[in-house]
Specification:
Two copies of one chain form a homodimer.
Chain A (H helix, E strand, L loop, with lengths): L4 H22 L28 E3 L4 H13 L4 E6 L10 E5 L3 E6 L2 H16 L8 E4 L5 E5 L29 H13 L3 E3 L12 H14 L5 E5 L4 H4 L11 H17 L5 E4 L16 H12 L5 E5 L10 H9 L10 E6 L22 E7 L15 H8 L12 H6 L9 E5 L12 H15 L5 H12 L4 H22 L31 H5 L5 E2 L18 H6 L9 H4 L2 E2 L10 H24 L7 H33 L14 H6 L9
Helix pairs in contact in A: 2-3, 7-8, 12-13, 13-14, 14-18, 18-19
Enzyme class (chains A, B): hydrolase
Family (chains A, B): Belongs to the glycosyl hydrolase 67 family.
Keywords (chains A, B): Carbohydrate metabolism, Glycosidase, Hydrolase, Polysaccharide degradation, Xylan degradation
Chain lengths: 691, 691
């Protein structure tokens, strides 16, 4: 019946179509690529949420609409009432949640609080926690919970390992990537309320009118998610962009230029957050170019932002190629300026005195500036921790700094309390994290790097959360609540930062990274004629007697920048914590450690332990295969292989190199090196992600 | 006093000169490079030996002179008498040694026996054994103890990993390298009495008159050391070199050409040993090119050599790209020819039926040719065992074949006994080893590869020596008799071949090497359109059901080439030795092994065990540092690093590849792979030593 062919075909095609629909309904998840693009926002079953009549709220507001939409799409429990309540203003972005079997009531002083509350109950639902007997009050630890993007206008990301920048400057303001809103939603879900869009090594062009119009589009998109936009600014902008004779902060023309620019910005973006400034650091221009101080520079900008409610985050990351120990320089520079900053200036201080090393003591500036608002800057992107290849959960690193007791205002004045306003009456409280986000489908270059974005957000919201709590939440949200996965993966995550320290630079070693890219080991690094303070040998000072940087009174005396009793604790080799020993002391190779081993043996065992742990992570992860989708399973498996090889690379490079000084055998119960030192010295990485 | 300067300078230079002489006398060893060039011939203290009046001998003969010179230079014990005794002719190259505190008496039927006896007592002295109460009778296991050099006339060495050829054909006959005699001495010291100078893939030019004149020089140099020269010949020589119409062995002109050539050879070298022939194999010409048999070809050559006492070693290594299992082809080809070979022909049979794999069952031809002399061919050079990079002591491999019971003439008719004349009345007895020698200072590309040259020589002399005895001798001679080194190094050597099998191809797997260079793993190897029998997939036949080559009756039936009871033992999966399981059977992945593990698990554990053992060898060797000179210590250390990395490479490649069929997890208590299968597939080695 050839004449019927056409009809038959249509009928059959229609049947197939139905079959597809049925399959789609049965296995909805199998149709999405498990590429990590959903982050931790993997609400159960992707079924619809509750019906509109079960969402009770008054008024109309874009933020409220988002909160309601999230409930309508994902909330599967009882009715939810969203209440704005002026009496709760004191909670700032915070909220209360009370619930019964019949209803959840979320109350907040403003709509952003309600949205955060909604994400709170969705998180409880997703982690299979009880949602029927809630009585919660949440108030964020910091007012400004801010991501610093080191994204350049050309689309590259400095120290970014997740592809190009998320911001498509060439397409803006006309074409809008759907990822902008996804990004805002992800931030809102963990409490991040501020973002600096561009690199601290800032292009003056960022302030060009055409770019500001692009920024406005992003600000408009982010606003309903409670997120304010900030910009990094180049101190030379008046000269470079405005054509002025200089950028001297005491020059009236310069001041007027900034004033006009601020007006322009706020006309476009009325809730613009403010400026982030890297000045007179690593070649960036700054007030010192004109004989002015950091305070002069910061205040000039603060004055123009003040009328609009904007703030200046002024980075304390300054050092120059002087004879002075690099670790001391920021403190020496800023201490004399204490009390000279406007009240809308906050000094942004890297967690440690050098530069985001696997382990540093806290920066002695914390607490030392008694009349100045201080904020900590963490690096979420893993510049010094294996890029997006190594699994290193950073909550323990962040917490280590936050919980460090500065003793500035007596015992208990931790970095957290110095910066969150609880021991001092800070004008501004803030916590910054250098973002690890790029255009990769999985956002951060690896699945486990997402946990660091998550952890930063959660800690900026509540620095009292434990690393274990954060890991627990993230694992359950990202993978499953099956304890067969949760427990081993949590164990792996919680030990992972110490493991990385062990195979990279244990016992206080620091900055022995390969020049420039900071990925692999290069303890031998010493470019003739190069800046000494950019050379690994400057930092480890290994010789036949021992290894480590003497920062005691007999050395650079960096210990004296710490308050009592830390100055003496750190300064005495017997009381200095062993995990910072080589940071503060030049220690003989045969120095007896607390466990009875010599320093050399201890060093060997630490490196070896790092390698062993990564191998253990491989085992742990491989046993997770039944509980994870194939795509993400293989992705992580593959990254761990790289980390495992890299750990051996680190171990061999450092032990073989330091052995040329210690002249002692690597203890014979340790797995032997498989590399030749000379071969390792020849490795030149050509990393795509290095920019 | 400037006028005195010149004199002062001279005086001072002279003083220095004296100081140098004194230092030289005090530390004589420290002035020699410990580059391994001395092999195992490191006689103690390099002092002078006994005085001439303590060496008693009659007659004058170049071999005797060498024996006396060795004593005068190195023997530090009592007087030594060297006696030729016609009644000892039955010992062939053998000898007797009797000693008291006053005198050692070495007696032999011929001078070569006396030289071997001298090396015997020097070995005893060097290994610190008793030399005062000796009563020894030695008779070699094989008459012809022969090295096969696969050296080409262009100076390259096929499957050689110790640099270029030792033979400088371009310099000969006029320039004579001192290494020719050192080479002869080394061979004599371990009983090797024959060498084939050139590659079995022979150039016809080898028989050119100018080349024969070069060969004559070497033969003259080797003769005093008891060594006869042989040549590999190209079957097409009459046509290619002589310009004849063909090389048909039944062609009178061809026969005459060979007759004339033999006369020419023997005129130059009266004790010339004979020809080694690779015919109709891997593209080499042979009698089958003219419709003749291997016997026709071998006999034609045997007839021309017979008048001069020469022999033909005819290789049984033949196979063609047919549908027949490659492992069966030599047997099928040669069995019908049994009884048809002249009595001065010996069939040279590779130890296994494929090609020098890490482990093969013995070649079923052994014992099967009942009326033909048979000899075994081992490979000393490590074509399939990690080149000169991997530490693999081959005595256990050699012994495994030699001690294999063929059951050809009833129980106990081992390969050793079939070939040494003890169960059959062989016309010729011989053992061949493909040399691992090149122009590298250390001769064999690595120190431990020297042990394989040593082991081959010692086993050809006495196949009843245990691997342990040989290793013990070699270690003491090469390094030290300090038990702190001897015992651990021996342990390492004795297990090293099994370790290599484990990390390369355990359980009977074979020939899954990378195409052509045979160094790394390539189990996926399958070049479209290539010869199937050169492809790894041909040999392992992995599929979803299992892995292994079914050579039972239901498969290729290679098992039937073995005598009873081996045909049934090998043919039955339950009785087949597990270390040959996949050689003879296609085994399901979940087959239960004797230890209760599945085949897949067992395979994983074997690979892992190989890796672990190499790491253990690294530890063992590193602890030897106090007992070995730095140069050789570092050399071996460096090789072991390569082996350690290679073992992981092998393990990962094979497990990840086979896992694509087994679809089972690698047991979780095993160290995880650190490579991606796809990356491993891309590795293309460009090995300098591959030629």
């Amino acid at each position: 019946m050839p004449n019927n062919n056409s009809t038959n075909f249509k009928y059959s095609a229609m049947q197939n179509y139905r079959v597809y629909i049925i399959i789609f309904l049965l296995f909805p998840l199998s149709f999405f690529a498990e590429d990590g693009s959903q982050l931790w926002l993997r609400f159960p079953n992707v079924k619809n949420g509750i019906s509109a009549d079960k969402i009770i709220s008054k008024g109309k507001n874009p933020t409220l609409e988002i909160a309601k939409k999230e409930l309508a799409t994902y909330w599967q429990g009882q009715a939810v009432e969203l209440r704005t309540d002026k009496s709760l203003k004191y909670l700032k972005d915070g909220y209360t949640i009370k619930s019964s079997l019949e209803k959840v009531i979320i109350s907040a002083g403003k709509e952003s609080g309600l949205l955060y509350g909604v994400y709170h109950i969705l998180r409880l639902q997703q982690t299979k926690s009880d949602v029927n007997h809630l009585n919660i009050t949440e108030k964020p630890s910091y007012d400004v919970r801010i991501l610093n993007h080191w994204d350049n206008l050309d689309g590259s990301v400095e120290r970014g390992y997740a592809g190009k920048s998320l911001w498509k400057w060439e397409d803006l303001p006309n074409t809008i990537s759907p990822r902008y809103e996804e990004y805002a939603r992800a931030n809102a879900s963990i409490g991040i309320n501020s973002v600096v869009l561009n690199n601290v090594n800032a292009s003056p062009n960022m302030l060009r009118t055409d770019y500001l119009q692009k920024v406005k589009v992003l600000a408009d998109l982010f606003r309903p998610y409670g997120i304010k936009v900030y910009l990094s600014v180049n101190f030379s902008s008046p000269k470079v962009l405005g054509g002025l004779e200089n950028s001297d902060p005491l020059n009236k023309n310069v001041q007027n230029w900034w004033k006009d620019k601020a007006s322009e910005v706020y006309k476009l973006i009325p809730d613009f957050g403010g400026f982030l400034v890297k000045a007179n650091s690593e070649g960036q221009p700054g007030p010192q170019d004109y004989g002015r101080t950091h305070a002069d520079g910061a205040n000039m900008m603060a004055d123009v932002l003040k009328p609009f409610g904007g703030i200046v985050m002024w980075r304390a990351f300054v050092y120059s190629p002087s004879k002075e120990d690099r670790a001391k320089q920021a403190y020496l520079e800023f201490l004399p300026l204490d009390g000279k900053f406007r009240d809308n200036v906050i000094v942004q201080i890297k967690n440690g005195p050098i530069d985001f090393q696997p382990r540093e003591p806290f920066n002695p500036l914390f607490g030392a500036l008694k009349k100045t608002s201080e904020m900590a800057e963490f690096q979420i992107t893993q510049e010094y921790l294996g890029f997006s290849n190594h699994l290193v959960f950073l909550a323990p690193l962040f917490k280590e700094t936050l919980e460090s007791d500065t003793y500035a205002d007596g015992k208990g004045s931790t970095v957290a309390k110095i910066t969150d306003g609880s021991v001092r009456n800070n004008n501004i409280t803030a916590l910054a994290g250098v973002a690890n986000i790029g255009e990769d489908a999985n956002w951060t270059g690896s699945i486990f790097a997402q946990a660091n974005w998550y952890a930063f957000g959660r800690l900026a919201w509540n620095h009292e959360l434990s690393s274990e709590q954060i890991a627990d939440e993230w694992i359950k949200m990202t993978f499953t609540d099956n304890q067969k996965l949760v427990n081993p993966v949590k164990e792996m995550m919680l030990s992972s930062r110490e493991t990385a320290v062990d195979y990279m630079m244990p016992l206080g070693l620091h900055h022995i990274f390969a020049f420039d890219h900071h990925y692999g080991p290069e303890p031998w690094g010493n470019i003739p004629g190069g800046r000494p303070d950019w050379m690994p040998v400057y930092y480890h000072k290994a010789d036949e007697n021992g290894v480590g940087f003497d920062r005691t009174k007999s050395g650079s005396d960096a210990v004296s920048q710490y308050f009592h009793p830390l100055n003496t604790t750190f300064g005495n080799i017997e009381t200095c914590p062993e995990n910072l020993l080589l940071w503060f002391h030049h220690v003989p190779w045969n120095y007896k450690m607390k466990d009875g081993k010599t320093l050399w043996e201890e060093l060997c065992f630490k490196y070896d332990s790092g390698v062993k742990n990564v191998r253990e992570y491989q085992k742990i992860w491989d046993t997770m295969e039944p509980y994870v989708d194939t795509e993400r399973f293989k992705h992580v498996q593959s990254k761990l292989k790289i980390q495992s090889k890299d750990a051996v690379w680190w171990k061999d490079a450092c032990l073989l190199y330091f052995q040329t000084f210690s002249k002692m055998p690597i203890p014979y119960d340790i797995e032997r090196p498989v590399h030749e030192l000379d071969d390792l010295k020849k490795i030149k990485l050509d990393l795509k992600h290095h920019n």
